[in-house]
Amino acid sequence: MSRRRTKQQIEADNALIAKIELALDTNPRAVSRAIKLLNDNQTAEEQACENTLHNNGIGFTSADAKFGSYLARYVNNNNVLSGKFLDAGRRMAKKYVRTQLFTIAKQKRDLT
Can you give the pLDDT at residue 103? Predict the structure, then answer.
């Protein structure tokens, strides 16, 4: 049995999505954090080979795995993306706003 969302829940979810999109558009640290979160969702095996091995709906898609892993390695060394890498990371992260990044942010919101 599926539970219907209320109008308030839908509005809250849409506001959260807008907040994530705004952060990605305006804050390089938010883009770097998003890349790190997506990489953290990869399995250990996927992180090691910098590829997507499991079609589990988390982490990078196969199209983004190689470059996303490259960006994540840079970010994991306490760096913030800039220039063309920031632009590419932003485009990549925006693909995941309504899925993984929303789910992570919603879980964080629901814990507070």
Answer: 94
